[in-house]
User: What shape does this take?
Amino acid sequence: MATTYRTLPQSKIFEFTVSGKVTSEDFDALSAPLDAFVKEHDKIKLLEIIESFHGFDPSLLWQGIKYDVKILPHITHCAVVSDMGWISPLTKAAGAFMATKLRTFDLSELDTARDWLAQA
Assistant: This one.
């Protein structure tokens, strides 16, 4: 999978892109800089761009759950951007159990998602 990320320290936004199957190397490549960003800013905003998703390495399931429990209290707002039809309902269902303000956007609305987070 190709994973990329960028940080916008002034607005406390951590932005990352998912494309393909998530491997443990991908997880490590994103979690380490995300941890550092949280350590620096405490409360952050997250922008997740899902270009394509072909599953994840099954060994990541428990690791991912533990990581989410640790990181979620630090995320005040989360925008999930994808054209994959099943992502939005799944994200909204998960959001019902989180204190994080969560919105979904189509890929064509990426700039709108960035604006929403910047103004939050």
Notes: The mean pLDDT is 89.
